[in-house]
Amino acid sequence: MSKQKIEALKDNKNYKKCKNGKEESKMAYQSRKPSSKLILDKELFNQLISILDKNIQVGVNEESFSILAERLKNKLLTYSVPRTDEEGTCYVDIRFFPNEASDMIWQLLAQVEKDTEVEDYYDILIKNRENK
Known about the structure:
The structure is a single chain. With 132 residues, the protein is an alpha+beta fold. It has one domain (3-130). It is 48% helix and 17% strand. The protein is built from 5 helices and 5 strands. The strands form 2 sheets. The chain has a 3-stranded antiparallel sheet. The chain has a two-stranded antiparallel sheet with strand order 1-2. The longest helix has 17 residues, at 63-79.
C-alpha cells in the first residue's frame, strides 16, 4: 500500500488519537439501526472478510489501518445476519453506519493494484463541473 493511501486514510476524520498515542477509529455506537444495507452472497461475504484479513496483516508501519480492518471484520462477524432464500442460496445482510461504510471503502481501495490501467476520470469530473 502506498504512503499516499496511508496518509489519506490518516487524514480521514474518523480517526482520533488515543491516550497511548495510537490512532483509533471512532466506530458508531448508537442505538439506531445503521442506514446503509448491503446484501452479499456467501462467496462475496467471504471475499470481503478475506480482504480485511489481508489489511490486518499490513504491519506495524500502518497500525491504525490494521486496527480499523480488524474492527470492521469483528463487526461483520458479530452483527451480520446470515439467511437462506427459498432456493437454498445463502446470503448475508450487512448494515453500516455512514462512517463505517466510508472506512470499508478505504479498506477496499487499499487492495486496488497499481498495475491496473486507469483512465483519468478526475479530468472528466473537472470538465463536467465546469459545464454546469
